[in-house]
Structures are given as C-alpha cells and as structure tokens.
Write a structure and sequence with these properties.
The protein has about 150 residues and is an all-alpha fold. Helix 1 packs antiparallel against helix 2, helix 2 crosses helix 4 and helix 5 packs across helix 6. The protein has seven helices and no strands. It has two domains: about 90 residues, Hypothetical Protein Yqey, Chain: A, domain1; about 50 residues, Arc Repressor Mutant, subunit A (Orthogonal Bundle), CATH 1.10.10.410. The N and C termini lie far apart (about 40 Å).
Length: about 150
Amino acid sequence: MLREQIDAALRSAMKAKDDKLRVATLRLINAAIKDRDIAARGEDRCDGVSDDEILAILTKMVKQREESAEAFDAGGRPELAEQERSEIEVIKDFLPRQLSEAEIKSAVADVIEEYDASGLKDMGKCMGALKERYTGAMDFGCAGKLMKEKLT
C-alpha cells in the first residue's frame, strides 16, 4: 500500500539525517493524506483514503509545485524554484512512471475507439475511462487537449 511506502521512506530519511528536504517533503505528503483522511471521516468513510486517492493527492502536489516553480522563476527567485523542483522529485518517487506523449495519444485513440466516441458529447465518458485506468500516470491536461482535437 502506498501509505506504508511513504511512511517507510519517511522513517528511513529521518534515520539517515542527511536530507532535510526529503524529510520535509515526506511530512508534507503525510499531512496532505491525513487531511484527506479527516475529510473522508466526515463522509462516513472510516477506512481512510485509497491508493488511487493518494495518487491524486501526489499528482496535485506535483502540479502545484510546477506552477510555483514557474512563478518563482518569473519573479527572479531561482533558489525557491529549485527547491520546488527538488520537492517534485521526492514526490515523483511514489508516482507510477509517467506516460510519454506518444503513449498518451495511443491511450486516447484506444478509448475513443472502445467507446465509439464521435463528438465532444462523448468526451466526459472517455476522460472518465482514462482517469480510471491511468490515475497518477498520465497528464490529463495533455490528454484532454488531444481528445478534444480528435473529437472535433
């Protein structure tokens, strides 16, 4: 389970005492997961968040840091941008391998063919299928653009 992998990595990093950035980033990941656990309890779900939800959390964290790094670069703060990129590398350790653009194109084409999609009205169910199959492994912004191009 992904939660145990993250906890084990945090314990290992804390014992090593050599990479403060890794420890801090892993603590941020755990805090985000616990925050989602608390929200799930409000929805009468006692089991906490699933691995798919953790992957979604990690993907969102990567996207936030990419946006922050760009903003720091634009604002002339390269040291802060570098820190954000370093955090991204720690987070990506727990994400599945990201699909290349060619693999995304292939997956989009397969889903369109599978659902016999013919227009933008079918985009929702096709994107839903992609999200179900490739959570954490695909840039859905890119996939959405490709799907829109094929369906128009």
